[in-house]
Each structure stands twice: as structure tokens, then as C-alpha cells.
Amino acid sequence: MKKHIYIYSPSSAVRDKSAFKRGVKRLRALGHEVEIDEAALATHQRFAGDDATRVAAISRAAASGADVALISRGGYGLTRILDAIPYKAVAKAIHDGTEFVGLSDFTAFQNALLAKTGSVTWAGPAVGEDFGAEDGADDIMEACFDDLLSGQGEGTGWRMPARDIDGLAPMRGIHGAVLWGGNLCVLTSLLGTPYFPSIDKGVLFLEDVNEHPYRVERMLDQLRQAGVLARQKAVILGHFTGIRKVPHDRGFGMKTVAARLRELIKPPVLTGLPFGHVPTKVLLPVGAKVEVAADGRDVFMVWGHRHAH
Q: Cα 185 vs. chain centroid, distance in angstroms?
């Protein structure tokens, strides 16, 4: 099933060129036609080219007619250019069949696009860290990516960690709720701007990397105090990785953060979503309507059949 994949760099400069090359090679080995944007390896300060270069790269990705527009990596850079992104052109490309896929800093692009146009994008892999992983690409991630390409992906399921089910009230099934979110730090930075989606009765998923649990808690509190969390049907926590504990935490950690959040908000707080800065990640349709059901520790999320163009 050969597909046209367009690789571009809307955020930080590609520093690990070997991982990038491995990722491109892997995608080609899977039988895809891989087109690399002319500025994919550009560098300006810490960015993949200056702001105008990266906006132009997004425009080219939208005009590529590719089946998938895939980011080279995350990092930092998209919040700088949110007021310059050609949202209408991107929305038209999505309508015509290009799926935009990425994570981390890409959360800014995804939620801004959702706020501006209602278009669906995919939280999923990046070229370098996922397809170009030194130990080889993760099987589950590749299978989920393949499902997206074939239009077969209909949902995902996972088991919550046993330690996280204390205080979890029985959950009624959720139907027709908009899935949104992504990287917690990036999403929180959009609060109060026109690029933060105004979503009621949605399913908000969150992940982060290299943030101490107290910072995670502070950001969650900001979303909670802004009234965002109480308006959702569920809050789902993915992986929070790269946490360095310090002696004076004295037991304070992500389990504490999740338990406190459950006490403070009515919507169920689910954990263990296989998404984040981890090799084994599923692809999630940001902006699509989903059904969510939980049976004990087992959680199922379904978005139904999204037709491949």
C-alpha cells in the first residue's frame, strides 16, 4: 500500500540527522513515496529555518497533495507563528485527503487549526524519534500508522495502571465527544488566545516530557481554574516521561497529581493512554468525535471508520 508522505519541519531544527535519515529510510522501506521539504534540514538559531521559512514549509505541505504530512520532529517553534499559518489552505488540504500527523510542539498547530477551522489532525509519530529510533521503529506505532494510511483505524484500547484506579468512580459511557489536547505545556500556553479550542463536553488527553510533577500539577490547575477541565466529559492522561525526582518530593509524584485531580473535578480522570514521548504510541484523531467506555482498568476509545480518500 504505497502512500505519498511529505516530511517537513515546522518547529525546531533537526539536530539528529542520523535519526532523520533512518526515519526516511524506514518509511521508504515500508514502500512509501517519501518527499522531503526543501527546508526540512534548514537551521536558524534553534529553529528549522526562520519563522517565514517554516510558515512556507507548512504551505508547501498543504499544497503537496500527499496522503500524509509528517513532521520531522517537535521541539519549539509553532507558537511563534500561529498568527501566520495559512489555516484555510491546511483545512482544504485535509478536506482533500492529506492527514497532518505529529506530536509535542505540533500540539500548538493542531489545536489552533481546530479552533480556527474544526479540521481533524492526528496526534502521532515524528520522523526522527519514532521511525528513526535507534532500536528500530515500534511495532504498535507502525501498525497504528498503517491503519491511518489504509483508513482502517477505528479506535484504541488500553489498561490503566493498577495503582491509578483508587478513587476512580464507575464511568458511564461517553458518546460523540470531541477528542482534543496533546502536550500539556504547549496546550496550556494557548489558554486565553484565539488558538485555544473552546470545547465543551469533550475528551481532553494530555501528555508531557521533562516536566516535574509539580509543574504538571500547576498547569493542570491553570486549566482547572480557567474552567476548562470541569467542562469536559473525561480527562485522559497519557505518559509523563523524563521525570527527575528530588529528595524533598517525599512521595509527591504523578500518582499524587492524578489522585488530587480526581478529588477536584467531576469528570473521570483516566490514566495510562499509550501516547506521549514514548516509543509505543497510538495515533489519535484530534478534533474527531469519539466514544469512550471503561470496564474496571480496561478503557476503550472508538472513533469509528474514517474513510481514506
A: 12
Which residues, at least 6 apart from 253, have a Cβ–Cβ distance to it below 8 Å? 213, 243, 245
Beta-carbon contacts of 242 under 8 Å, excluding residues fewer than 6 positions away, are 209, 210, 211, 277
285 in Cβ contact with 202 (< 8 Å) = no
Residues composing the chain: 309
Amino acid letter, residue 23 = G
In DSSP notation, 208-248 reads EES--HHHHHHHHHHHHHTTTGGGSSEEEEEEEE-----GG
pLDDT digit string, tens, across residues 237-294? 999 999 998 999 999 999 999 999 999 999 999 999 999 999 999 999 999 999 999 9
Q: Are 94 and 58 in contact (CB under 8 A)?
A: no
Active-site residue numbers? 104, 207, 277
pLDDT in tens, 208-243: 999 999 999 999 999 999 999 999 999 999 999 999
